[in-house]
Batch of 3 targets.
Target 1
Amino acid sequence: CTHLVLVCYQRRVRGMLAFLIVCITVQFLVLFYLQDQEWYVAVESSVEELTAGSMEATYIFLLLIFQLTYPAIVYTLDHEPIYRNTLMMCLMVVLYAINAYLVLFSAQIINKLFEFYMSPSFLFRLQILA
């Protein structure tokens, strides 16, 4: 019985490590893709400063919201199918809708409140969402 628990634990750890590697890789790809755009404006900062209000921080944050919901979906599957968990489904739909709105059509008041710096290209924002 303990061997089975150990095997399950090792699978979860390997799964989470693979998930982290994929997340970090996607974040770097988005970062490099962002910096390759002609309208990209680099922010001058030192290593000690936290650069809030930059395009990099904005898109990594918005991407991270999508990425961090995947483990919630995956680990609820251990208990019961996700479509039976009505509250979880409603929360996921609301979270994805809000995040999609922030990526595509973020209002000025939200941008100012969270110090988002959105790209001028709607096509770029649509590609990030995809």
Target 2
Amino acid sequence: PPVGAEVNVAGVILHVVSWNVLNKHYMKCVEKDTQGLNGSTISLLHEAGQGHRERRLADIVMEMLLHKNRPTKTNLLCLQECWPEFLDLLEDRLRAARADRAGDFRLLRTGIQSWLRRTQKNQEAIIYDNSVLSLCDADSFRCHRGQDAYAKADPLKAVAEVLFEVKATTSPAQLRVLTTHVPKSPYGPGRAELCRCVARLLNATSSASSQGCNEQPRLSVPTLLLADLSFPEKAIRPLLQRAIRPLSVSFARIPYPTTLCEGSLLPKRIDSIAALSERDCMEVKAMEPEDVLPGLGAVVELLKSRSMDLAPVPQKEIRTDIEEAEKAEKWKRHQEKVLEARKKIQEKRWNKIEARMPFQDDGPSWMEGDVRVKRFAVLVRSADRERFQEVIARKMQLCIKELGFSDTGELERFYLGFDPDFEVWDSAGVAVSWPDEFEALAQERFPVKVSVKLPLPA
């Protein structure tokens, strides 16, 4: 869910929102279902294709911007994980809103160059209300990548920066806005690189000197960070505070979670809005879910109770015998599917092993007294000696079935003979004497003749 806050900049109250829309190119994460999202509206709209999800997201964005249950519109909306087709559609919607005089909203995107607008699969976007905020000059919007942002964590990800002039103030006022999606590798350098990037941007001197924007040190410009931090605030606040001293860091106290922990499904919040400024220069106050988007309260309640441990304890249901039988049958079918899936996984594993050690039939079987002998030729490597024993045992079981044996428990009576220079490997499959020349060819495939001796079928 999106997060929002009221920001007081030089006496002007701004309504700002941040939202990670979940890039369609990252839907594999949803398909893995580590957060219980597979089968949700997100995946259903994605599977439907034909732009269904893009249109639904655009509807939600416009609903947040033109909030009907609030006296004022949303003045600033930062979006993470956008893709070109969605942003193109959003620009059309904003253009239509301007034509209908519903709102003078403008969109900035990190695919600044024309060739990047279509090829950059993952972009950040900033939508602003031009009646309240305006760009200081043509260079007010910047996109920082590579060495200027996440050089090691993810060079393709960007930190978007824009410098606004706040209108309707008694004295000229500026506001810097930063938005990004921090790479989420648990032990990666993403958090530290973000803090260094923010510190560099705040300590640089401004080059804005036109259209009423006075040239001034950037430290005096209040900065607003709206981002998907990929981590709770507690994991980033100390690093950020140390990086931007003497400025202060003030996070809006968002009162609800925005996502779920992988596996446990415990609710957590990783989307944040923070003021980076001189003390008491700018105030941020979190908005309630319904003030961000009508109907968001129900989504938040679902997130809070998504974990089984946090869900309300259901009342004991009285089940009939038919319902109990249906439940048992459903559990049985589930177990069968699990066993079938495990069987397929094991089969793939064996196929991969046997592909490394191919067997070749070395002619028909023959009789030696009261036993039937079947011979194979197999190419193995010394590094695969343990796997070799497993493969031989599996081949023995297949031979038993081919020769008409139904009881594989008789496997204990079978043994293998290696020729010409190998010792016997007994039924326990303990040891094989590997010749010196085999060790010398450690990674070369070495031909081994294997004879499987079986008692006559009954």
Target 3
Amino acid sequence: MKLESSVPPPAHRLRNFGVNLWAEFSSLAVEHKATNIGQGFPDFVVPEFLQEEVRKAVAKPSANWYTRAQGHPRLVKELATEFSPLFNRNINHITELITALIKYKTIYTANT
């Protein structure tokens, strides 16, 4: 009996995007025997001096933390305040606005 993959294929609208940036970086890191510091890597014990520097950095309140994926609440609230008059309506900053630094993420978010 042949088992089918449990991973569904991507939506048709996403099939023309090709290899994403992160898959490309991971492949290059393996090819060049480089340390990939993205997507959950490195997967080995980090030297003690670096662990200590990370502890110091993350101990600062509100420093070095990811915000919500759709944008920092203060930023999207300001954007809603700025753009609501242009559209002659109140824009909900939590449910109707997103910000993104990476165009790949923006395109994916807009199409899903």
